[in-house]
Design goal:
It holds the Pfam family Trans_reg_C. By secondary structure, the protein is an alpha/beta fold. The chain has two domains: 120 residues, Response regulator (Rossmann fold, 3-Layer(aba) Sandwich), CATH 3.40.50; 95 residues, Winged helix-like DNA-binding domain superfamily/Winged helix DNA-binding domain (Arc Repressor Mutant, subunit A), CATH 1.10.10. The strands form three sheets. Strands 2-1-3-4-5 form a five-stranded parallel β-sheet, sandwiched between helices. A hairpin with a 2-residue loop joins strand 6 and strand 7. Helix 2 packs parallel to helix 3 and helix 6 packs across helix 7. It is elongated and about 60 Å long. 27% of the residues are buried.
Length: 228
């Protein structure tokens, strides 16, 4: 079952960025635009993790955190506080109110996703064994390892993300544009030919022990990981 993450953030650009990156990590995601809506959504269905902006309309994030911790249906809900307030006293106040972690804006999306994974692994131990197996290929997201036929394959970060995405959708054909959008991100400009280069590197790495090519090229359509 996918972890469910609730984003409580009133800046649409930030909430959309978080939504996109969390969906890419294969989480179930919902957004609340103010503190009142966040509390209602938590009451209706408790998330596995709350990403909570400090400066929310109607009810502030710090007050949402206080109310969650003071009782309600899910007082142990993991909370990562997001805020532009970087002073030490503010961080201490946020943590003392009950936040599990505190991230100052502007933040690194990569670092924030790592913190999300770390918090979720603490509260859902099953996530420590985050593996996907397709055919003779196994990818371990937590250890950041790839094994084929018992041999560890060393991949660069882009090739790892490509393989991860392919293995989430074995047999499905993706165009270069779709891969650029999901693996590189819609806010990064790179040429479509870049996909060919990285797919070539991925193929070479996966075949270094002489195995069959697990990636299929579909003329005028794109690439797919063989489902078998």
């Amino acid at each position: 079952m996918k972890p469910y993450v609730l984003i409580a953030e009133d800046e649409s650009a930030v909430s959309e960025l978080l939504f996109y990156n969390l969906k890419k990590e294969d989480y179930e995601v919902a957004i609340a635009a103010d503190g009142e809506e966040a509390l209602l959504m938590i009451e209706e269905r408790a998330p596995d993790l709350l990403l909570l902006d400090w400066m929310l309309p109607k009810i502030s994030g710090i007050e949402v955190c206080r109310r969650v911790r003071s009782g309600g249906t899910n007082p142990n809900l993991p909370i990562i506080m997001l805020t532009a307030r970087g002073e030490e006293s503010d961080r201490i106040r946020g943590l003392d109110t009950g936040a599990d972690d505190y991230v100052t804006k502007p933040f690194s999306t990569t670092e924030l996703m790592a913190r999300v994974r770390a918090v979720l692994r603490r509260i859902r131990p099953g996530l420590k064994d985050d593996r996907i197996v397709v055919g003779d290929i196994e990818i371990d997201r937590v250890a950041h390892k790839v094994i084929r036929n018992t041999v560890e394959i060393h991949l660069g970060p882009t090739e790892f993300r490509l393989l991860d995405y392919f293995m989430q959708h074995p047999g499905r054909v993706f165009s270069r544009e779709q891969l650029l959008d999901t693996v590189w991100g819609s806010d990064v400009y790179v040429e479509a030919r870049t996909v060919d280069v990285h797919v070539g590197r991925l193929r070479k790495a996966l075949r270094q022990e002489g195995g069959d090519d697990p990636i299929r090229t579909v003329r005028s359509a794109g690439y797919a990981l063989r489902a078998d």
